[in-house]
Amino acid sequence: MPLHSMTGFGRATHALNDTHASVEISSVNRKQAELSLSCARDLNSLEAAIRPIIFQHVSRGRIQVNLTVNRAAKEAALLDVDIAMAQALESAFARLSSTLQRDLTPNASDFLRVPGIIRAQEQTMDAAQIWPAVEPALHEALRIFQESRASEGAALEKDLRARLRQIESIISQIQEIAPRRALRQTELLEKRLTELNCPIDPSDERLLKEIALFADRCDISEEITRLHAHLEKFHAYLIGSEPPGRALDFLCQEIHRELNTIGSKASDATIAQAVVSGKTELEKIREQVQNIE
Fold first, then answer.
1. Cα end-to-end span (Å), the chain
2. Considering the domain boundaries, does residue 273 fall inside one?
């Protein structure tokens, strides 16, 4: 299954007889799947039909669906007249005439200028009759939306694989350096003892015991093995059949934990620097994973 981003956009229109429907679908990151429908109040009931169609293709993210429907008028719109408001306007002019001692009479433009005196009746829409025009627009917008998410997902996958190679290279460097730490520690101990004028036989049991304890404390072979397993699993999720976002986020946490453990056990400046580089790349991976479905 191709990798999908949680952000995307799709728009489509469809006309059927006197009905023209326009559907816009957009999405942003969310841990769970959410749907918000924006449409005329008469069409709110269509959410029950739209929701399963969307969630058949989307498992995470906040999806916004904007639905606009226009119908060609088959007959002139009926007008409502607010008689009480018209009478109130006329009374206001009469009071002005009396106050100013001038003859002031409202004309037609005055009545039209006051909001609410004359207004068109709202045309209601039957959701069941509108649906045949909406459904094709919805499916086309969803197709474009999915293409948008897949395109961004492909770019994310390319970036993730490049950064995974960087981390794998860093782990290889650590593996190469790690076996030399015990020898380096032996040389450091011998140098310090010599500086203190306390030479010691390299085969001395006390020295060998100290080196063995150091090697045991600094052993990172288990962490390296687990890191390789996590990275292998990461690659497998990228080409899996299920949306991998949650699993990849968990793996990032596990990789971070292993790198932290290596850094604390390493007792080596070179390894510590390599761990910092690895965590830097991992943080960039985590930022990208937050946008993967």
1. 12
2. yes
